[in-house]
Design brief:
Helix content: 40-55%
GO biological process, one term: regulation of DNA-templated transcription
Function: Member of the two-component regulatory system CutS/CutR, involved in the regulation of copper metabolism. CutR suppresses a defective melC1 gene, encoding a putative copper-transfer gene, probably by altering copper metabolism.
Strand order of the largest sheet: 2-1-3-4-5
Protein name: Transcriptional regulatory protein CutR
GO molecular function: phosphorelay response regulator activity; transcription cis-regulatory region binding
Largest sheet: 5 strands, parallel
Structural class: alpha/beta
Keywords: DNA-binding, Phosphoprotein, Transcription, Transcription regulation, Two-component regulatory system
C-alpha cells in the first residue's frame, strides 16, 4: 500500500511514517499543502493522511483537489479539533474518514488499512492463493499452516502479488506500491526482495517470473 502523510508537525509526521513503514506500507512524507498537491500530481497513492491545518495550501483545498481530480485515493483527515461540526465539514469536503488528535497509532493504522481496501476490488480480509495465507491486519503469513517470518518489504511485495489474483505485476508496479519515492528506480531492490521472498516461502516455488513482464503467483 502506498501512503502519503501530510502533516506540518514534523516530529509527528515522521513518527507516523516510521510506524506505517513498520506495517509494510510504502510511505512518503511532506510538511505543507503545496508539497502535497505536487506529490499527488505525480504519484498514485492508496491513502493520504492529511492534516487539516497546513501552511501554504490549507488541507481543505488539498482534499478538494484530490476529489476534483477524480482520483481513487482515499483521504484520512486529521485535526486538533474534536468538534462534531468540524468532522462533518471535513467529510463534506470529500474526506473518506476523520480522526481527531491526539489519536492512538493502532487506530490510525486500522483506519489507513480499511481505506486502502476501498481503493481496490473488494477481497477477503485474509488473502489465500497457492497454499499461502496472508493476513494484512495481523501481518501474518502461513504456507501449509506453517508461519513464515517476513521483513516489511517482503511482506509488502507478497501482499501486492496476492492481491493481483494471478495477474502479472511488473517490477515497476512493485516498486511503486512497496517502496517510497526516495528509492532509486534503477536499483535491483525488487529482484533481490523477490529472491529472498521465494527462498523464505520454500518449495515448490510459488512466485513465477514472467520474462520481460514481471512476477505472478
Amino acid at each position: 500500500m502506498r501512503v502519503l502523510v501530510v502533516e506540518d508537525e514534523q516530529l509527528l509526521a515522521d513518527a507516523v511514517a516510521t510506524g506505517l513503514r513498520r506495517e509494510a506500507m510504502a510511505v512518503d512524507v511532506v510538511y505543507d499543502g503545496a508539497a502535497a498537491l505536487e506529490r499527488v500530481g505525480v504519484n498514485d497513492y492508496d491513502v493520504v493522511v492529511l492534516d487539516r491545518d497546513l501552511p501554504l495550501v490549507h488541507g481543505d483545498d488539498v482534499c478538494r483537489k484530490i476529489v476534483e481530480l477524480g482520483m481513487p485515493t482515499r483521504v484520512l483527515m486529521l485535526t486538533a479539533s474534536g468538534d462534531v461540526s468540524d468532522r462533518v465539514e471535513g467529510l463534506e469536503l470529500g474526506a473518506d474518514d476523520y480522526l481527531p488528535k491526539p489519536f492512538a497509532f493502532s487506530e490510525l493504522t486500522a483506519r489507513v488499512r480499511a481505506l486502502g481496501r476501498r481503493t481496490t476490488v473488494a477481497l477477503p480480509p485474509v488473502l489465500e492463493r497457492a497454499g499461502i495465507k496472508l493476513d494484512p491486519n495481523r501481518r501474518e503469513v502461513f504456507r501449509d499452516e506453517q508461519e513464515i517470518q517476513l521483513a516489511p518489504k517482503e511482506f509488502a511485495v507478497l501482499e501486492v502479488l496476492m492481491r493481483s489474483e494471478g495477474a502479472v505485476v511488473s517490477a515497476e508496479q512493485l516498486l511503486e506500491k512497496a517502496w517510497d519515492e526516495n528509492t532509486d528506480p534503477f536499483t535491483n531492490v525488487v529482484r533481490v526482495t523477490v529472491m529472498t521472498l521465494r527462498r523464505k516461502l520454500g518449495e515448490p516455488p510459488v512466485i513465477v517470473t514472467v520474462p520481460g513482464s514481471g512476477y505472478r503467483i
